[in-house]
Structures are given as structure tokens and as C-alpha cells.
Amino acid sequence: MGRLFKTCSVSLEDMSLKALENTFRSRRFWVWQIGGALIYAVPATIRLATGNVHLPILSAFMPPWTTPFVPRNIVEKVLVNAFFPGGAGAVAGEVFWRNKRQPLSRKQKYLARLGGAWIETAVWSLFQFIGYIQNINGSYGGNLFEAPYVFPLNFTLAAFSIFTPDVVSFIRKKLVNTYHRLRSKKS
């Protein structure tokens, strides 16, 4: 009996390592990771370049109140976190579980996305925390990294970001269909 258990556990471990390897080879995984990181970097780059914590367009949508748990740049936070780390993590979780076992039901797909989004958000929050405790100031005078007070908000946004890949896919389909319709009318 112990021999059978040992054989099963080794094959499960090999299957997980193979799924992880296939995840890192997936084009979709890298498109979401790199694209999400670039989207996340845009506001930070603007903030560092201008030396102002308020972004030119999004500052018009800032709420008049602020708390340690909900920052004034909440609109920016919602938009950016939908793609990174939440959306990118959701795609990573889905790709990993698809590589581990092929058919995923709708419920399993969203649970895989939720797990991936939370894991990537946890890793990103750890990176943010390490940077925050080092107290590195940006050109605008504040800490370059997020305060730990907003981490619960990050996990909440990650839970909602499991739908970002669906929204992006829907918009992409509509744009492609519109392009093809316009192209066929032009010919």
C-alpha cells in the first residue's frame, strides 16, 4: 500500500512541475504578465517623472476623502490592479490548472483564476512591503511603495479582477469584428 501511495505522489508532483513548466512556456501567460506590469508601471512612471503624486487625468476623479485603507487614488488603483497583479495572476492560475488537467468547468476556471490572482497579489504585496519598510522616497516626496494598509484592498480588487480576462476578450472580439466589417465595406 505504501508503495502505491509513493508512486501516486511522485506522479502528481511530476504533473504539477510539468504544468508549471508549461505555464511558463505559455504565450498567454507572458502577454498578461508583461502587459499587466507595463500598465502598472505607467502611473508610477508619470508620478516619478512629474514629481507630483496626482496624475493629470485621473486626479479629476479622486474622492474628497481619504483613509489609510482606501487611498485617494482609488480610481487609478481599480484600473491598474485589474491588470496587475490581479488580472495577470488570474490568467496564470487558469493557465496552470489547464495545463494540470485539461477540461475545466466554469466554476473550476474561476476558482483557478481566484487562486492565481491571490497568489500573485500576495507575492506583489510582499515585494511592496519590503520596499515600504526600506522607506525609499520618490521624487514627489512620499514613499515609493504602497503602505501595508492598502493590502486588504489589493486582495479585494484581485478577487474582482478574475473577470478582467473575459472583459478584455469581449472588447477584443468586438473591435476585431468591427474592423472586419469596416474593411469589407471599404472593399
Characteristic key phrases:
mainly alpha; about 190 residues; 7 helices
Please characterize this protein's 3D structure.
The chain is built from 7 helices and no strands. The chain has one domain. By secondary structure, it is mainly α. The model has no long low-confidence stretch (mean pLDDT 89). The chain is globular, with a radius of gyration of 20 Å. The protein is 70% helix and 0% strand.
Structural class: mainly alpha
Low-confidence stretches: none
Query: What is the overall number of helices?
Result: 7
Total domains, how many?
Answer: 1
Element-level helix/strand string = HHHHHHH
Strand residues, percent: under 5%
Helix content: over 70%
Largest sheet, in brief, is: none
Gross morphology is: globular
Rounded average pLDDT: 89
How far apart, in Å, are the first and last alpha carbons?
70 Å
The whole-angstrom Rg is 20 Å
Could you give the count of β-strands? 0
Helices and strands in order, then pairings?
Layout: H1 2-24, H2 27-50, H3 74-81, H4 86-100, H5 106-133, H6 151-160, H7 164-186
In short:
With 187 residues, this protein is mainly alpha-helical.
